[in-house]
Amino acid sequence: VGNSSVLTCPSKPSVMMVTWKISPKVGGRCTLGYRADTNETNRTNCSDSMNWKLTPERDPALEIRQVGIAHEGNYTCEVVATEGNFHKTYNLIVLVAGKPAAQVLWVLEGNSTPKEEVHDNGTVTVLSKFTAHSSNVTNTTCIVSHPAGNQSKSIAC
């Protein structure tokens, strides 16, 4: 989130046409197109955060600036060249704290019941309470696993 992402596309010496077809999980489709014979580019329904990295005749890569959850989805590049037609598809998944839901594990034996709260923006808050089986427990460790990074914390009881 917040960084730029570059999606490459097959680069051929004799490109006639390049089209990026973007299908986000949320919102409408968008396309970026380039025709070599007229040296024209066009865009349909694409936000300003998505554009050619350089110029499509030099490099057909797509740059997404300030990636956010709304950019998740399928990105397909189609290249028409004298050598044939070439396709490359990406499934863009954006990792942020809170998406996907974190996994919570307690080191000591006891009861824990994680509860998940799903928010409108697709993130999830996980709340886990630990109840020890005996009163001899003086501390425990909570381990949180997530694709964006793992953490562990010792907690005094």
Automatic annotation (TrEMBL):
Keyword Cell membrane: no
Pfam family, one: C2-set_2
Membrane topology, record value: Single-pass membrane protein
Major localization class: membrane
Signal peptide as annotated in the record: none
GO molecular function, one term: signaling receptor activity
Biological-process GO terms, alphabetical: regulation of neuroinflammatory response
Compartment(s): Membrane
Keywords: Disulfide bond, Glycoprotein, Membrane, Receptor, Transmembrane, Transmembrane helix
GO CC terms, sorted: external side of plasma membrane
Domain Ig-like, residue spans: 1-93
Organism superkingdom: Eukaryota
Matching InterPro entries: CD200R, CD80_C2-set, Ig-like_dom, Ig-like_dom_sf, Ig-like_fold, Ig_V-set
Entry-linked PANTHER family: CELL SURFACE GLYCOPROTEIN CD200 RECEPTOR 2, CELL SURFACE GLYCOPROTEIN OX2 RECEPTOR PRECURSOR
Family statement drawn from the similarity comment of this UniProt entry: Belongs to the CD200R family.
Protein name: Cell surface glycoprotein CD200 receptor 1-A
